[in-house]
Design goal:
The chain is of the alpha+beta class. The chain is 16% helix and 32% strand. It has twelve helices and 28 strands. β12 and β13 form a beta hairpin. 39% of the residues are buried.
């Protein structure tokens, strides 16, 4: 089963209708078509971008003279245009705020006269109920004009979105197709959710981002920065098994979820292994890890975190060693990963002679796709063993050789270290990509020795190069491969003291101010 993002979008507040129009006509004028040109990074050639791709989606007018849409419609877009309903006009737009984890974004228009005389759609005050009827607006494949389809709410759950983000999700049976992304789903003239995905090759199974998640996003970005939703990142399991309950000495009638791995191991962290969380705030947790949020709706207990956190702390009732205690758990806006997601960022890289180094990312591993087993399974690589680990120390990154070696005589006799993780340079352990560049800048040995990560009896080659030969090769390699800079923008200042040592060709090609 493959889930494909396609979305629909939303509307926000007081619907203002010109006299004589029906409610649906007023909603139609608040839904726009979005034309975007995606220019995504090339993760195996991190100095370059992939060929431009034309993407169409939908969006809806909300307060603040903004358009609400899906992040996947506009992420990495070099050009964005908004086309009003029943109009050939295309208005240039730009991303104001975005969260790929919950697939939401807002746009600002260059010409805000578009908003004059237009209202906004009110948000539904509560989650819908199963079997409620929804009307979905958008610009799906199959035509050029606005489409309206109808369906019912099939299911509501709290589940994982993207990039380890979680949130509420509404399943509907309305007919959705590519292009619906960012359009609103409406019940009784009020917005209930933003369509963002469907299951390909399944009949009428689509998903909405509920208004509650949209409100949280808009509140978060009110200061211009998206911080993320509070999350409880401890690993938990249910306590339904009788033998497990006996070991925990859980009294009859007491339920909850057991902590199998606290997020942090430091002594002052309030949760310990074997703790049973019986309540979040004042709400009891079932033995299968769910809470009743309405007479007709049970959700994962994790749902309570986003609404019950105060000042970065979550009030929990815990059963530990036969006693009930109360703790204030610190919550986090995102999980720390030694191999992080790029989200909407660009890959970091540094080119030294024939070698291309980059900070490993989850996006890079996903880019390897079906090659991953063959490419990494027989290679001793922390890209597999540490994929979801936390950093051991602040700022830790895995530095990977992101691309095949550029052809050069100095590599004669070496195997290509493509996809290998760098461990040491001149016997100095590499902490992150910036640290690698600092080592290469400051350590003036005549030779540079690279060692790569190993596992068990398997080892990678050690590579030794003459420093001056590496430096002198940069300019020619950049010129032959049409590369403008030997480093990502964040590393320009770190390497600048070496610029005078580069050949003139390299200086003219790669070392101009970015």
């Amino acid at each position: 089963m493959q889930i494909i993002v396609v979305g629909l979008a939303l509307l926000c507040f007081q619907l203002v209708q010109p006299s004589g129009l029906h409610a649906q006509d007023g909603i139609r004028d608040l839904v726009v078509k979005i034309h975007a040109t995606h220019h995504t990074p090339n993760l195996v050639r991190p100095w370059a971008k992939n060929s431009p791709q034309q993407v169409k989606g939908s969006g809806v007018v909300i307060d603040g003279k903004r358009i609400l849409t899906n992040a996947h419609v506009v992420r990495y877009a070099s050009q964005i245009y908004v086309q009003p309903n029943q109009s050939s006009r295309r208005i240039p737009a730009r991303v104001e705020s975005i969260t790929p984890a919950l697939d939401l974004a807002t746009l600002k228009l260059d010409d805000e006269s578009f908003f004059e005389g237009r209202g906004t759609l009110p948000f539904a005050p509560d989650l819908p109920r199963v079997k409620d009827i929804v009307n979905v607006y958008g610009y799906p494949t199959g035509g050029t004009e606005l489409s309206v389809t109808q369906g019912i709410v099939s299911r509501i759950e709290y589940t994982e979105y993207y990039y380890q983000g979680s949130g509420l999700r509404i399943q509907v049976d309305a007919a959705l197709n590519f292009g619906n992304s960012g359009g609103p789903a409406v019940t009784d003239g009020k917005l209930v959710g933003l369509v963002f995905s469907l299951i390909q090759n399944a009949q009428n199974i689509g998903y909405l981002i509920p208004v509650e998640e949209i409100r949280l996003f808009l509140t978060d970005v009110a200061d211009g920065v998206y911080d993320g939703k509070p999350q409880m990142l401890d690993v938990i399991q249910t306590v339904e098994n009788a033998a497990l309950r006996q070991k925990l000495r859980l009294p009859d009638g007491m339920n909850g979820v057991m902590v199998t791995e606290p997020y942090r191991s430091d002594p002052d962290y309030p949760l310990k292994e074997w703790d049973v969380i019986t309540q979040i705030g004042d709400t009891p947790v079932d033995s299968d890890g769910k809470v009743a949020v309405r007479y007709d709706l049970r959700l994962s207990a994790s749902y309570l975190v986003q609404n019950s956190t105060k000042n970065g702390r979550l009030s929990l009732t815990v059963f530990r060693d036969g006693k009930v205690i109360h703790v204030a758990l610190p919550v986090f806006n995102q999980r720390e990963l030694v191999i992080p997601y790029l989200m909407a960022g660009q890959p970091k890289y540094f080119i030294l002679g024939p070698l291309v180094f980059s900070a490993a990312s989850q996006d890079y591993l996903e880019r390897l796709g079906n090659q991953r087993s063959a490419a990494l399974g027989q290679r001793p690589s922390p890209l597999v063993t540490r994929r979801y680990d936390k950093p051991v120390f602040p700022g830790e990154e895995l530095v990977v050789v992101a691309s095949p070696l550029f052809p050069h005589r100095m590599t004669n006799g070496y195997d290509d270290p493509n996809r290998a993780v760098l461990s040491e340079v001149n016997s100095i352990p590499v902490k992150n990509l910036r640290h690698l560049v600092e080592i290469l800048r400051d350590d003036r040995d005549s030779q540079i020795t690279f060692k790569f990560a190993k596992s068990g009896a398997l080892t990678s080659e050690t590579m030794v190069f003459n420093r001056q030969e590496l430096i002198e090769a940069i300019g020619k390699i950049l010129e032959e491969n049409g590369i403008r800079y030997p480093y990502s923008a964040d590393l320009a200042g770190v390497w600048e003291t070496y610029l005078t040592a580069m050949p003139k060709t390299a200086l003219s090609i790669c070392c101009a101010s970015q």
